[in-house]
């Protein structure tokens, strides 16, 4: 192995969507590549304890709500639908296994060498890998890509105990729905896992420090989402800062402040979802002189180069939204730069999604951001209740909103609240990437009857010429 290793072009540390996709691209470009992963399975947070298992549970629990509350509207009569949580969890595990196994296969077909163990940079061009059995080997390489991701932020006054006070990792694996489930933080994780357990029978309360949920998304649509989730039974307390959680006999009591009031909340389980922080413990980056910013993120230039020659970084460990697809595209661009091509990422066209029902999706600027910046924009909106397919689906909740430059008509932002918003947002993201206008999108033929017609109608609404609604 040693002989071969001397000739490595790139070592990628971390096999999440950033790292493993970078490895595939490196393989495609003929670079001699090794991927180092400390965990047994490849795929990182996203595949093992994040995006994929949460979407498996979101889909299963959404089907349950359909069976219980919606099926009868379609004339489908189901007597007393119930949940077999153990089967639901096993299905989730099977999905994860299929995908992590698939990534391992992809490494083989792309001739990427996979090394299991903790990777530590000992010098520029040198990485040591310590396996779980304690053996260490040192490998030489021309380039190193750090893709070590992020971990949940812990509140000092509500430390994770893995049972009562938990992170998303444990909240994906409950063996029964907690009777009372308290969620701290109304971001993507809190809203998604709050939804899962609310659907499966828990009484869910979400405490959020800010006066709104889903920070970063369009405010109007976030407020509509909050209303929808409230009608599903989730209780929200905004402008409520959690100051501590005490656990006694397996029950938690959280203390929070709202204005001058002190509030207490009892729960069987508490999910702390107040954000994630970059993970670089044991990596040795500081020791070789890699610079970090004030938030402990690795500093890179637009080519993903750190200040140390031959060391690059991508994904959650650098600045920007902590999203799998952002990490993937950075991984590709970074490898292309290493291979002498010119890879880049367009940060104005990265969609963000919260997979509740309805789903909240957004790409580009929001209406509130445009206002704050004093930008001259026009807004077009179209509600799904005026879309034929949404009516046929009995799924009319939600709206599409476009923000376009008032002078050039270029689309600057698109925001969608709808059951399948995660799929619908791909079209506006691609139009933004191509620098298209609302007129371009409005003149594009969209199949009938589809939900995507509402996207076209919202684009037409920018010029007040939507067809199936009164324009104001
Ligand atoms: P987040 O940063 O999205 O939201 C955390 C929320 O907690 C904020 O609204 C914050 O104001 C609130 N908060 C902080 N301290 C608090 C306190 N003491 N009391 C009450 N509220 C408090 O973080 P989240 O949801 O944990 O997600 C972490 C990262 O993972 C994010 O970057 C997110 O984008 C990403 N992610 C993305 C998903 C997706 O794309 N669907 C799914 C899950 C995670």
Write the layout of secondary structure elements.
Layout: H1 2-5, E1 8-13, H2 17-28, E2 33-37, H3 44-49, H4 51-70, H5 85-109, E3 113-116, E4 118-123, E5 126-130, E6 136-146, E7 150-152, E8 165-166, H6 168-171, E9 180-184, H7 188-199, E10 203-207, H8 219-231, E11 235-237, E12 240-248, E13 251-258, E14 261-267, E15 269-272, E16 276-278, E17 311-313, H9 324-338, E18 352-354, E19 359-364, H10 367-372, E20 377-383, H11 388-393, E21 399-405, E22 411-418, H12 421-424, H13 426-433, H14 438-442, H15 452-461
Parallel strand pairs: 1-2, 1-6, 2-3, 6-17, 8-15, 9-10, 9-15, 10-11
Antiparallel strand pairs: 4-5, 5-6, 7-16, 12-13, 13-14, 18-19, 19-22, 20-21, 21-22
The site of 1,4-dihydronicotinamide adenine dinucleotide has 27 residues, from helix 7, strand 12 and strand 18.
